[in-house]
């Protein structure tokens, strides 16, 4: 069959006659149905290329055009690696920095920012808090997202209902689980991920492989419920899906079939069969249609799979060529373009951030959730507490009853330095758990569950009591076994310095995690920064001997270990006297003299000033974290906005539409 013949036959396929249940009539310029609140998404000539390394300029998506409408579900299908996730990311404004995007994506006819809290996105990986039960995970999410106007019991009811709809009632009180302990299954995790995103009935929902890990019955029920939501609540749903059963396939309104980033077919799912048949690739009667489409266009396993087709081409590569050419000439494509053009001028709802809970509610709920997570996670603090206790027992026995001899000056210096450097350094052990928290934070942030400041405050509040335990118990063991300066006030000060130092390392690791999210790279970076600070704190190389002035001052003054050292030393030495061996032991040397002459410390101000500087730095580190996260959230959409300029004809059409929303511009 020549391509002209294919074109003629394709023109006979009438869009509206056989389109799926969700197809609605279009009126000129305005879409009927969900105008009040729905989000219309259109994309035209959308290109995505890799922009990093060897792959730079590799085309991932090649000029795609399509749309998604409220009340409908668009399924994206294609062989593995064809660009399904990339298309979802591009539409959701979440492409990573290793890619470049061109063409344009419009929401309600306008270029609006979708990233950071405006759409719900269920990613391929299930990033959930492993220590929570299913009920807790969904309930905390509900509290974070649902409006304050809903009562507690209404929220609970919504949670229970959503959990049941996803078939998770049996697993409600089972912990999600992760690497350390086994919890619910992979398929159940998938459904929990969907639960937390559909709670608020988001206007726009992206689902990347929602049914992976589910059996066919569960897949059908989950997709059926999602489609119910689309129809009932006017949600716009775009789902990439691998291998739907024929029942699931029948639920979709539109289908976007991709191969190597190119459109093989975009149109009503119900017309796909005819499209394939018309081009010489009819679906055998006993085969699942979606299996057939994917086998026909899968170049990775050519030859055999096309046996029996009536087309001239028996290879997938040839089949793809025929289908792409035929689609370009078809009236299905023209209809898609017409609808995309219609939607350019449509007027719909503004893109808003999703969480409707107040800032205070977010802070309270996040603090509670984070506290429970830290409490239940053995690796977060309990293991550290045990290791710290063991280490402090070693310190205590090794430096037991240190005394007040001349030699005890050096021994006191060593034990305090060890505590200030290594005991603090070990706080880095919380990083792996924190990286997991950050992954959850990123997912929830992108989905608009809460504010960054709420996360920062809650993290600080929930970790504070745990860190206090880790500092006080081991510190007391070391302090009293060694026999450091007597007096409860001295011990309390000592524990406060250790506590502040631990808070500082946590803050530092939060900053590192916001820049280097990878766990190994983060540990290396965090360790490197701390080692540099310890080295420049004026102990290994005494302050007066440090290179002057260029090298000395910045690091010496920035390193928090300097202030921690000074605080420990002042707390310990001031008020003590030691026999002066150089003077034959007859005279004594005071603690102040030791600090000034021996360690060249700044004794002109009180130890409380050092402690205040440490707590000041604790706040500074948290604020820095906040600034970095907020800045990174702003930079990404700005870069995207520059690349995502609509062509001239779009600007002309949009000129008649309403004013730009949410900082958007036409
Ligand atoms: N930042 C990037 N740099 C280079 N190549 C990329 C980048 N992002 C995606 N790709 C490549 O683009 C192709 C499409 O990736 P994508 O994850 O979108 O495929 P997919 O259809 O979702 O695959 P699967 O079904 O297996 O999840 C892959 O070959 C992938 O390696």
Strand order of the largest sheet: 5-6-7-3-8-9
Question: Which sheet architecture does the biggest sheet show?
Answer: 6 strands, mixed
Measured as a percent range, the helix fraction is: 40-55%
The geometry reads as elongated
Distance between the termini: 44 Å
Which stretches are low in confidence, meaning pLDDT under 50 for 5 or more residues running? 1-35, 638-666
Radius of gyration: 32 Å
Number of strands: 11
Please tell me the overall pLDDT: 82
- Which ions, cofactors or small ligands are bound in this entry? adenosine-5'-triphosphate
Count of DSSP helices? 24
Question: Could you tell me the strand content as a percent range?
Answer: 5-15%
SS-derived structural category: alpha/beta
Overview of this protein structure:
With 666 residues, the chain is α/β, with parallel strands linked by helices. Helices cover 53% and strands 10% of the residues. The protein contains 24 helices and 11 strands. It has helices at residues 3-11, 15-18, 84-92, 134-145, 152-165, 186-198, 216-233, 246-251, 272-278, 289-296, 316-329, 331-344, 359-376, 378-398, 407-425, 431-446, 452-482, 488-515, 519-535, 552-558, 560-573, 591-598, 607-643, 648-654; strands at residues 41-50, 59-68, 73-77, 99-107, 120-122, 204-208, 236-240, 254-259, 262-268, 577-579, 588-590. It has a 6-stranded mixed beta sheet with strand order 5-6-7-3-8-9, sandwiched between helices. A 3-stranded antiparallel beta sheet has the order 2-1-4, sandwiched between helices. The chain has a two-stranded antiparallel sheet with strand order 10-11. β6 (204-208), α7 (216-233) and β7 (236-240) form a beta-alpha-beta unit. α1 packs across α11. The longest helix is centred in the C-terminal third of the chain and has 37 residues, at 607-643. The protein is elongated, with a radius of gyration of 32 Å. Residues 50, 52, 55, 60, 78, 80-86, 96, 98-99 line the site of adenosine-5'-triphosphate.
